[in-house]
Amino acid sequence: MVLLRLRCLLWGCLLSTVHPEPHITCGENQYVTNNHCCDMCQPGKKLVNDCTEFTTTECVSCKTGEFLDTWNRERHCHQHKYCDPNLGLKVQKEGTSDTDTTCRCDEGLHCTTNACESCTQHTPCPPGLGVKQVATGVSDTVCDPCPAGFFSNVSSALEKCHPWTRCETKGLVELQSGTNKTDVICGLQDRIRALVAIPITMVILLAVLLVSAYIRKVTKGPGNKVIQPKKCQIPVEDLEDPIPLYSIAPVQETLHGCQPVTQEDGKESRISVQERI
User: Fold this and answer.
1) Structure pTM?
2) What is the pLDDT of residue 12?
3) According to the 3-state scheme, what is the secondary structure of the chain?
């Protein structure tokens, strides 16, 4: 029984050696089918029928919204990619029969994969880190720590590290050193501050004195006016007994309360307290 199996195996090897299958080599854009080399379909077309001894490969163009971007023997075309606006995508370039549609992300977003099938927000660089490379539609923000002499005090996807303020350029001195998150604090020296404060104080005091003097002069002005005594006019008809031109005793005529008063010459004029009041 074992001998019979060995004989069958030997005869099989001999038959395969005597009648080997022919080895077919096809061109770059060809494929083997039914012992024939058939041409592949060019990009933008799909396969309908293989070639035969008498016919060539039959291909047809992809329909609208479909594509094939390589030489192929595919029976179906691929659908164009859909740029979903709900995922933050928009069309960058419309597809053709031999190219797919390309998508890109809205402003402030970037693709999560090379195929750009979804988007995500740009990563902001926190304080202490600056933007080394601004994000694009296909890459995220690249952050870098602020070196010595630079700082960043905001969280941003655009701001780079800023250099510390140089106090000496502003005529100031450094009161507090900066860090990678804060700027240098500048200010005046105590001596300089005093030299600046004294003239300012003197000017303010002088201004206050001038204003006070002006206000005092304005408020006191009306009170300095001299009140002129009221002139009395005595009607002629009110004098019933005119004084004769030649009288025995000389008299002196005075006015008191707009009333004429006669008095003998040489006698002291006296007005009662009631009349003065």
Assistant:
1) 0.49
2) 58
3) CHHHHHHHHHHHHHHHHHCCCCCCCCCCCEEEECCEEEECECCCEEEEECCCCCCCCEEEECCCCEECCCCECCCCCEECCCCCHHHCEEEEECCCCCCCCEEEECCCEEECCCCCCCEEECCCECCCEEEEECCCCCCCCEEEECCCCEECCCCECCCCCEECCCHHHHCCEEEECCCCCCCCEEECCHHHHHHHHHHHHHHHHHHHHHHHHHHHHHHHHHHHCCCCCCCCCCCHHHCCCCCCCCCCCCEEEEEECCEEEEEECCCCCCCCHHHHC
pLDDT confidence bin for 213, thresholds 50/70/90: confident
Q: What is the CATH number of the domain that holds 37?
A: 2.10.50.10
Judge whether 176 lies within some domain. no
> 66: domain range?
24-79
What are 263-274's pLDDT values in tens digits? 444 444 444 444
